[in-house]
TrEMBL record:
Residues 24-270 form the EAL domain. This is Diguanylate cyclase. The lineage of its organism: Bacteria, Pseudomonadati, Pseudomonadota, Gammaproteobacteria, Alteromonadales. The chain holds residues 417 to 686 of 686 of the full protein.
Length: 270
């Protein structure tokens, strides 16, 4: 009987795996179509300084599917990242972001953050393509921040560092997104040209209830500040979190408490 059960389980997992592959295939081909059919759009989420002035915004991709409605990047980015499709999506969002920055009146201090996937960053022509886009849209390099995750550092680190250096020499900045969820230490990040750390939402969401999470964020913030990093807290949702974060010193705050991501075409400065 056990054997029979085991057999059934294998079939079940098999079927689930097949369904999973089919789902990925549908999303992948749907995305190819989305690029062609103009179903993608640029959304922006504002970020604020401790004094509540506008610090900048983060560019976030959205997929408006004609039948399924809005599909979350949390669902389709990981699938796009499995192939060069992420390079096409990445090129698209970069061009949209820089075009928006050129055509929108913002302060010189306004910084636009764009998420960059490891596969996109590792392309040999990433730096030249970005430079060409920045020239086309007259981008002030100091207004562009590239958000990368710690997973980039498991790639060829010498090449990663070299590319980061050539971009920072131009004046572009780097931010470590979802900081704290990966394996890299502050000591390691110090050896890279990085200007900003974005503390992951999972820590921020717990600082109200969990003393341990609060202590952890306090220590990360204190060390990061002493090391000269700009600090961003992501996923700030409550007044209590704002107060706790402000008590830890000046940092940039981003989250639903302040502003939800909004269509770039609807952008209004607050
Ligand atoms: P991320 O870069 O860490 O972006 C922050 C995510 O948290 C966004 O989700 C944002 O809408 C969400 N968020 C912001 N504030 C709050 C809050 O207060 N509470 C909660 N619960 N969530 C908040 P989104 O737009 O769904 O994007 C998810 C992820 O998809 C991003 O995480 C990023 O890793 C990826 N992604 C989005 N757009 C792009 C893109 O253009 N290129 C690449 N490579 N990845 C992208
Ligand atoms: Mg991000
Ligand atoms: Mg993040
Ligand atoms: Mg995150």
């Amino acid at each position: 009987q056990a054997k029979e059960k085991g057999g059934n389980q294998i079939t079940l997992y098999d079927d689930q795996y097949k369904a999973h592959l089919e789902q990925n295939f549908i999303i992948h081909s749907g995305l190819l179509n989305a690029l062609k059919e103009d179903q993608l759009s640029l959304f922006l989420q504002a970020k604020y300084n401790a004094d509540t002035s506008l610090a900048g915004a983060e560019a976030l991709l959205r997929w408006q599917h004609p039948e399924k409605g809005m599909i979350s990047p949390g669902l389709f980015i990981p699938i796009a990242e499995k192939s060069d499709l992420i390079v096409d999506l990445g090129d698209w969002i970069l061009a949209q972001s820089l075009a928006w920055l050129e055509s929108t009146p913002v302060e010189d201090s306004f910084q636009l953050s764009v998420n960059i996937s490891p596969r996109q960053f590792m392309r040999t022509d990433f730096v030249t393509k970005l430079e060409a886009l920045m020239a086309k849209y007259h981008t002030r390099p100091s207004q562009l921040v590239l958000e990368v995750t710690e997973s980039l550092f498991i790639d060829d680190i010498d090449e990663v560092k070299q590319k980061m250096l050539s971009l920072t020499e131009l004046g572009v900045q780097f931010s470590i997104d979802d900081f704290g969820t990966g394996y890299s230490s502050l000591a390691y990040i110090r050896s890279l040209p990085v200007q900003e750390l974005k503390i992951d939402r999972s820590f921020i969401s717990e600082i109200g209830q969990d003393k341990g999470a609060r202590a952890l964020v306090e220590v990360i913030v204190a060390i990061a500040r002493h090391m000269g990093f700009r600090i961003v807290a992501e996923g700030v949702e409550t007044r209590e979190q704002v107060e706790l974060l402000n008590s830890m010193g000046a940092m940039v705050l981003q989250g639903f408490y302040f502003a939800r991501p909004q269509a770039a075409s609807d952008w209004s400065v607050k």
